[in-house]
Amino acid sequence: MSTKPLAMRDAFLDRIWRAMAHDGKIFFTTADFGSPVLDKIREQFPDRFINVGIAEQNLINISAGLALEGYKVFAYAIAPFITMRCYEQIRVNLALLSEVRPINVNLVGVGAGYSYVVSGPTHQCYEDLTVMRALPNVEVYSPADHVTAAALFDQCVATAGPKYLRLDAQVLPVVYENAAPDMVHGFNVHRDGHQICLVATGYMVHTALKVTERLASAGISVGVVDLFNFSGFDAESLLAALGRYSGIVTMEEGFRGRGGLDSMMFDFLARRKFDARVLNIGVEPAYRFELGTRAELHEQVGIGVGAVEKSISAFSKSLSV
To answer: Could you say which architecture CATH assigns to the domain 8-167?
Structure first.
């Protein structure tokens, strides 16, 4: 029996709601952002729920204060607003403060990449991986389906420090039908290939899996890795998984060449003197106001299935030259 797809936020919030019944130290804050599961949290645990209104900077201040009192805080808002609108507060009250005081604040941002497809660039989020991974002490999680998102809850509760979870706003297909991936490693090998490995995160894992099917029919064997923990992945295990490949392709639903997954993998491979060519696939660095489906917008900015297949086919030919 296949696992029914759910919205990431619903799966994650359900874990919070269930845990709050037996863990009095879990506190929930939100910046005037709701969901059906959130209604249950507000109704059943009103003494551990605060809606600060449309005030994300205050959301961070209050969450930091609660964490200093020993609470495990989950702060919830739309992805671009819980990162960029209150960046200084995150830097000072979470990243910096966590150097000297043990705090547990989990920033739950909904709307990664083009999730809010009809809302335009104000509500779409292409920069969050870049700005959040730039902060010391902040863990960054980027799940590809609701199974992984729900599994990250245990890590959030058990581990001290600030964390950022970038959740998709749409209901995505289930990647992990049988069980959640190994959270200790921080990544999962979906497919083994020969020459090229696609290292993808979030929504782009789905694109990577579709592209590998197309490339296989053309005789190109490609591996796929889902990297969902940007800050705490097992470096040696990932290096071993990539060791067989002469080409590495990074895939992210964020701006290309602006410090996201591509920058992280460049640094990771260079420090270990990994001998492979690297191709970065990401959003063309520009803001666009066109409307369309997510698939249509992805093709326009170079990260759609067709565009990615074309880029990797050309990359594969260059490796054999």
So the answer is: 3-Layer(aba) Sandwich (3.40)
Q: In whole angstroms, what is the distance from residue 94 CA to residue 127 CA?
A: 19
What interhelical angle do 146-158 and 8-20 show, nearest 10?
Answer: 40
Q: Where are the strands (E) in 201-276, listed by range?
A: 222-227, 247-255
Whether pLDDT at 224 is above 90 = yes
Q: What is the pLDDT of residues 34-55, one digit of tens each?
A: 778 888 999 999 999 999 999 9
How much is the pTM?
0.96
Q: Does domain 187-319 have CATH number 3.40.50.920?
A: yes
What pLDDT, on the 0 to 100 scale, is given for residue 275?
87
Q: Are 8-167 and 187-319 the same fold in CATH?
A: yes
**Sequence-distant (≥ 6) Cβ neighbours of residue 1 within 8 angstroms:** none
* First CA to last CA distance, the chain: 46
**Residue 321, pLDDT above cutoff 60:** no
Q: What 3-state class would DSSP assign to 236?
A: helix
Q: Is 165 helix (H, G, I), strand (E, B) or coil?
A: strand
Name the maximum alpha-carbon separation found in the chain.
65
| Domain spans of the chain, in order of start | 8-167, 187-319
- Judged by DSSP in three states, 223 sits in strand
